[in-house]
Design brief:
34% of the residues lie in helices and 26% in strands. It is an alpha+beta fold.
């Protein structure tokens, strides 16, 4: 059990005193009539319509106390709700000395309060609730690690530190959200982003569907899965790494345009752009090819950018990104040749390509045991990706690294695939999908040969998927996009942790003697 700090013990004592007086520090009901933004708008409207100096506008507000100060017979407080902050004014004349003293003594920063009264403007012009009654809604035991100014009775201002540690912010997102309005705004933008994706696809006659998260066989991507066990069925199951193979089964069933937005799980490394659990959008479009999907993609991302930020031009770090179509298009072979000096088409085997990489770049080379496709991925990541800053489609990929894509007519070693890159990293991936069951079976077999048994990107044979394909699958274009990465771009965040409410983190070791003051400081957040 964690040891309570001095301030927490003081607040726990207050809870005991409240209960001894018959006051519930966590009552069941609240009676809020307005949010802060709603009452401000209503009061301003009443001011314009009224001939009185101060129109009578009544309200019951609720929120978390973010600042308070006592000034003799009056006290002021600022509370914060979902819309922002608003000031409360307590005066002995209306409430009586005992009630004002009760507020000053028993209410702390971080507590939730309900206050009823009438609105007015202070001499400085701030719209304020003149409190006629109030009650505690929830007592805060642990002081928030909040950035705030506290005004003393002599007028001096003391500033207390903010919650800035990325580690604590990620582990305690609840505290991060409570004290940082910009973080709340980022996640509202993320919600707008997902809503905009749905709206765009719905308006283009795509049907939203749901496919299994627990799967008897993983597939649709090159990644290591998480494994679990189903007790009743007595078999291992996998958390999905992709929606692809299930969504394409639906094309067989004559659902011609389908999409899913949901969680995928990949048991692999964590980085600024990778989290083991992430949100993915995938759609599949019957009778379309990768060129049509390319056009739809740039339209969709531009639409979403405008809905989230108000413009197709988005600031990301030192760059101003322009998402307005058309995006730049670069053929993969030409792009790798230009940036690395190696023509991958001239090196048909892994051994030959490895020699070329070592000849050009010395010790900067991939694992010599890698398949040819992995070596091409190495060249892409090391040399080409960092140059793709403005939205760019990289297209026409080697078949080695695209087991589910259709070959370009007349060129069996190159497939109709593109990836979208922005700010030096990939945000989406699309194919003209393979719909020949015999060709697909052969590629599954090739993938099994090319990768070692312990290779994390080995693609398993999916017999049921092949059976579905044998019933007949229409030609189609498929698309996948990491929603978290798009959220990073549209909120100017450079770590995926910043756009995930609860990112994956190493287990926190807290011994019995752990003290929360080591995180926030014993005197933090209090006057």
């Amino acid at each position: 059990m964690s040891e309570y700090t001095t301030l927490e013990k003081i607040r726990l004592q207050k809870i005991e005193e409240l209960r001894a007086e018959g006051i519930d520090p966590y009552p069941t009901r609240a009676e809020r009539t307005h949010t802060s933004a709603q009452i401000i708008a209503e009061f301003e409207s009443a001011e314009k319509a009224s001939t009185d100096a101060t129109p009578e506008v009544k309200a019951t507000l609720a929120g978390r106390i973010r600042a308070s100060r006592a000034m003799g017979k009056v006290s002021f407080a600022h509370i914060e709700d979902r819309d922002g902050k608003i000031q409360l004014f307590f005066r002995v004349n209306e409430l009586g000395k005992d009630r004002v003293d009760f507020f000053n003594k028993m209410f702390d920063l971080g507590d939730f309060i309900q206050a009823t009264g009438v609105m007015f403007r202070t001499k400085t012009g701030e719209i304020t609730l003149h409190v006629h009654d109030f009650k505690l809604l929830a007592k805060s035991v642990t002081p928030l690690p909040a950035d705030k100014d506290v005004t003393q009775e002599d007028g001096t201002v003391i500033r207390y530190a903010a919650l800035e540690s990325p580690e604590i912010r990620a582990r305690q997102r609840y505290a991060d959200l409570a004290v940082n309005p910009d973080v709340r705004d980022n996640f509202r933008k993320r919600a707008t982003l997902i809503k905009a994706l749905r709206t765009f696809l719905d308006e283009h006659e795509f049907l939203e569907v749901e496919t299994p998260i627990l799967q008897p066989l993983y597939g649709g991507a090159a990644a290591r899965p998480f494994v679990t066990h189903h007790n009743e069925l007595n078999q291992d199951m996998y958390l999905r790494i992709s929606f692809e193979l299930y969504l394409k089964r639906l094309l067989v069933g004559n659902l011609e345009r389908v999409y899913e937005i949901g969680r995928d799980f990949r048991n692999e490394g964590v980085s600024f752009k990778h989290n083991p659990e992430f949100t993915q959008l995938e759609f599949y479009w019957a009778y379309a090819d990768y060129l049509q999907v390319m056009e739809l993609t740039e339209q969709m991302v531009a639409y979403v950018a405008e809905k989230v930020t108000g413009s197709t031009k988005v600031k990301f770090g030192e760059h101003e990104l322009e998402f307005k179509p058309p995006w730049k298009r670069v053929e993969m072979r030409a792009g790798i040749l230009e940036t690395s000096g190696i023509d991958i088409a001239e090196h048909k085997t892994a051994e030959d390509l490895l020699k070329a990489i070592r000849s050009k770049h010395g010790n900067k080379s991939p694992d010599p045991k890698s398949a040819r496709g992995k070596m091409i991925d190495f060249l892409l990541g090391e040399f080409l990706e960092p140059t793709l800053i403005q939205p760019t489609f990289l297209y026409n990929y080697p078949r080695d690294i695209s087991p589910l894509a259709k070959s370009i007519p007349g060129d069996p070693l190159t497939v109709e695939r593109f990836e979208g890159y922005v700010a030096g990293f990939e945000i989406c991936n699309a194919f003209t999908e393979l719909n020949d069951p015999l060709d697909q079976e052969q590629r599954f077999l090739e993938m099994g040969r090319d990768y070692t048994d312990d290779e994390e990107e080995k693609h398993p044979m999916d017999e049921d998927y092949l059976r579905a394909m044998r019933y007949g699958m229409p030609p189609n274009g498929g698309f996948g996009m990491g929603v978290d990465r798009l959220a990073m771009l549209l909120t100017d965040k450079h770590s995926i942790r910043e756009v995930l409410l609860f990112p994956a983190l190493r287990k926190e070791e807290l011994g019995d003697g752990f003290k929360r003051k080591e995180e926030f400081g014993d005197g933090l957040n209090t006057p």
